[in-house]
Amino acid sequence: MRKSKAVSALALLTSSALVLGACGSGGTGGSGDAGQQDSNPGEVGGADQVYKRPKVEDIGEIAVAIEEGFHNYNNNIGATNNFSSTIALSSVQPSPFISELVDGKLVIKVDGDLMESIEVTSNSPQTIVWKVRKEAVWSDGKPIDCKDFHLKWLAGASKATVKGEDGSEASIFDSSPTGYEDIEKLDCSDNNKTITTTFFANKNYADYRGIFSSPGSDGLLPAHILEEKTGVADITKVLPSQNDETVKKVAEFYTKGWLGFDAAVALSGGPYTITSTDLKDQTVLERNPKWWGEKGSSSKIILKTNTDSQSAAQQLQNKEVQVIAPQADPAVAQQLRGDSAFNVFAAGGQTFEHVDFNMARPLFKQNADLRLAIAQCFDRQSLVDKLVKDVDPNAKPLNSLTFMPNEVGYEEHFSDIGKGDVEAAKKTLEGGGWKQGADGIYTKGEFRASFKLGHKVVQRRADTVRILQDKCKQAGIEIVDDQDVDFNDKRLPASEFDAALFAWVGQPLKAGAYGNYASKDKGGSGNYNNYSSSVVDEKWKAANGELDYKKRVTLMNEVDKQMRDDLHSVPLFQLPDFAASSADIGPIGYVGVGGGVTWNIFAWQKK
Prior knowledge:
There is one protein chain. Strands 1, 3, 5, 14, 15, 16, 17, 18, 22, 23, 24 and 25 form a 12-stranded mixed β-sheet that branches. Strands 2, 4, 6 and 7 form a 4-stranded mixed β-sheet that branches. Mean pLDDT is 90; it is low at 4-42. This protein is α+β, with helices and mostly antiparallel strands.
């Protein structure tokens, strides 16, 4: 799960399980509703549909306005893990399974351009055979093969650790172990083009479609580059059980060698390659000359960063760009929907806004009553009415951290808070021994009910803070706006905040979100607010290995109830996926794990 936009459609066990409810489309005002996720997702190991990129006409150069620029080639570690980088990487880094939007449904399919086949040959022990196409190569001509799969397994399953500043142990690869740690062995055969993963006995993994793949917020990296840079002759000889100088050398390059962008090491295994980027305002992609599949429609793609939704819409109207994917903005949505010169895509997707309390800060760690009071004074309905309704008329406050409202299994565990209840918040504080000072703010001992709410520079988030401040100030709680252009990229992964306002970009597989909530020493590589619960750790792991779909739903709701009890995070609302284009470009859509609006950029055509 990528920061910036969340949770999956719980444990999709087949390729057709997740449904995104479309709430609008087209400049002509058309709309539709894709309905709810299927209640019967099918069997683990069922035959998956295969996707192959279509043959398309050349449309030349195209420009896309996005809300945040590309940052890092390796986007799969805790220090990076940013949605903004997937916008470019979705057409660059290979992924055995990919997601396609089909009539409002997010369908997981085998990437038929990359893979010859993926087959579950046994469930006892769970065994999966992955066959990479013979012609699949990186942009330097070297094969995409078992070494690349092995490197991802090593990074996720390695037992080598490093001590954090707080003394806790964490993965030396800064990577989530989810799924990978359950693989007992990974074998290479057929000239390294066949990979066989065998899981430990009684360690089945229901969301195997997420390992190595974008539906699990992952992907493959060129292992041969790591070999060249580290001097390791054969990465497949380095095992997860090792904790020696060799694995430390591998981890050093894995976590640092692919940061930022260096064309010499940031290779492509997809239809496009990144040719230049300033890591901020502009990233350029061009067709990968070594790509063996059908050529992408655009000869050059220019990704232009624009943090202001209104300005991005102006760029579209002025024909400076052909497509925009800003934060959902009511005024922009209404403006573009009313003009037949543009197409608008808006859907209730897998993205949700939330506020996380930094549980390492004494103010929040030691004062559960303050966390509750803050949650009580938050006026979530006002947020929805003022910031979301004009984009998605069906929007409502979100009452779960594990399910979206259009998913089977959604239960409202947070419905008792977030109602802008000033009196309830005051009662909670006073019942906990807090006293209201002359300035109207409550205090207790060394603590003052005041905190900074950090977020990146986006107008809607500044508006969110302003709305939250209102009722909470009346309740004697001070919220200080703390916006920073580098918040998501730098401060959030470094836990440099009192509380954080951001969103998770969800994936169609639930297990991948484990790393955002698990204790850091249990694999919480994306756990930026330092939350820790043994109940959550154990139940979520149990859910990941549970092949019975209904039982998984029950386990995940038990996880959600525990997080409500701990109240380390407050869900605000499901954020509509939003994009717009000139009417002669399409088809546009939005798949968060596939790069948002760029998920199918290789197939865009001019009408």
